Amino acid sequence: VGMTAAGDPVIDSGREPRAHLAYRPTRSDYVRINVALIRRSNAAMAVGTFLTVIGGVAVAAGDLFAVLSGVVGLAMLSGYLALPVVWYATRRRSDLMLVDVDIDADPSGLSITSPNASNRVRWATYRTVRETHEAFLLQAGVGASFFVLKRGSPPARLDAFRRVLRRVGLTPRPWTPWPRVAAVVVGLGAAVG
Questions:
Q1: Quick one: pLDDT band at residue 14, thresholds 50, 70, 90?
Q2: Is the pTM of this model over 0.70?
Q3: What is the 3-state secondary structure (H, E, C) of 77-119?
Q4: E strand spans, the chain
Q5: What is the CA radius of gyration of the chain?
Q6: pLDDT tens track for 71-89
Q7: 128-131/9-10 β-pairing
Q8: 86 burial via Cβ count (<10 Å: 0-12, 13-18, 19+)
Q9: Phi-psi region of 67 (alpha: psi -120 to 50; beta: other; left: phi over 0)
Q10: If phi over 0 gives left and psi between -120 and 50 gives alpha, with beta otherwise, what is residue 169?
């Protein structure tokens, strides 16, 4: 994929796909993405449901200290459990987290460059890619996900990034609710059983 004078990708079927994206994440970006990740976590849904039900039952029985369990459970279910962690991390190390990021993607991997670091990651590192309205979430299957923000990138560049992902077998998939529904049922079963 070549680039026009404006920096937009030009589709050329004779070459390997390439994409360049650039963005500067904000605290709000980190909050929204981490809230979305927690909301989509089966473990967070099961544990959040369990804590909410147990907390509610204990409060109904007169144990006011159990309100804490219910609050933590609701924070997990809503995803806002991430809020204090993200706020603390971005406040403490904004020089690392709130900086310009350049992403260059091609079939061999992903180059991530910021003022503080440069890294090249092979696509085999990632197991799945989820696409939300705000970002591409690249998931390794364990640990934290890496996100590539869409904000600030023209549609042609986002399409070029999707082409690279498809070329390497990581077709962006939307989230499905059924695993989370099952996790809530497991949490309810554990709380009631």
A1: low
A2: yes
A3: HHCCCHHHHHHHHHHHCHHHHCCCEEEEEECCEEEEECCCCEE
A4: 2-3, 9-10, 19-23, 101-106, 109-113, 118-121, 128-131, 135-139, 146-149
A5: 20
A6: 999 999 999 999 999 999 9
A7: unpaired
A8: buried
A9: alpha
A10: left
